[in-house]
Each structure stands twice: as C-alpha cells, then as structure tokens.
C-alpha cells in the first residue's frame, strides 16, 4: 500500500510539473520560503534553533536568488535566441527572395540559351546540307576531265571539224564539176543525136540489089 501511495504521489508531482513548469515550481518555492520566514519571525524557539532556521532560510533565499538568476539568464538567452531566429528568418526570407530572383534569371537565361541553341541547330543543319551537296557536286566534278584537258580536246575536235568541212567543200566542188561535165556531155550527146537524125540513111549496093531481086520475084 505504501508503494502504491508513493507511486500515486510521484505521478501527481510529475503531472503538476508538466502543467506548471519551472514557473510553478518557483512560485511554490517562494510560498514555502514565505511560510518559513513567517514561522521564524513569530516563533519562540531557542537562539540555536532560531539561528539554524535563519541559516536554512538564508540558504533557501540563496537558492531562490540562484533560481532567479538562472531564470533571468534563460530568459535573456531565449530573447537572444528569438532575436537570432528572427534575424535568421529575415535572412532566409531575403535569401529566398534573392534565390527566387536568381531562379527567374536562371530560367530566363536557360530559355534564351535554348532559343540560341535551336537557332544554332538550324544553322548546323543548313551547313550540313550544303556540305553534303558540295561533296556530291565534288564527286560529280571529279567524274569529268579537267578544264584544260576539255579545252584541248575541244580544240582538237574543232581542228578535225574544220578539216572535215574543208574535205566536204572539196568534194562538193568536185561533185559540182562532175555535174557540169555530165551536163555538157548530155548536151553534146543530144546535139549528136540531132545530127544523126538529120543525116540521110546510107544503103549498101549489095543490099539494094537484093531488094530489087525480091521485088522482081514478087512481081512475077
């Protein structure tokens, strides 16, 4: 039963400490000190007992002063910590604001960089296309002879063409000459034919005799 009572008292004290905190303990300590002081003032104890009670009261006063100093220090520390927290919160706010601005600037810079990269990509594609076309043209050009060789061949072909044209003109002149000669031959042949046609026919005497005999035989 004693253990149960002690346990319940401890539980009650713990609950009171949780509810009251340090301030409640200090108030109770001051109340106890005030009661002891009033008891010491109004008591008729012997000088030895009175001195002992006074010494006890002084010790408790010293403990109260220490507690008050500790509470004051704790309060000052709490105020300083609260001030630091306020400054830290303000710095965090400024830092967050700065970070937001920097983030906005970073986003804008990234957007501009993306736009520039897109333009560079377009230019790179155009350059690549032109380069591919250049290589294709270079391959086609390599399949044909050089300009000097082409000019030399062209000059040679021109010379051959001039020679052929000269030969062609020579043959044309020769053909014209042959045509004229043939025309003259035909004219001379027609003239000769006319002369032959205009001449009297010449008969052979033997043929004439044979003709007369035949006529006589027919008459008889």
Automatic annotation (TrEMBL):
It comes from the Eukaryota. The keyword Transport does not apply. Residues 107-174 form a coiled coil. Residues 198-220 are annotated as: Disordered. GO terms for biological process: mRNA processing. The keyword Lipid metabolism does not apply. Signal peptide: none annotated. One of its GO terms (cellular component) is THO complex part of transcription export complex. This is THO complex subunit 7 homolog. It comes from Hydatigena taeniaeformis (Feline tapeworm).
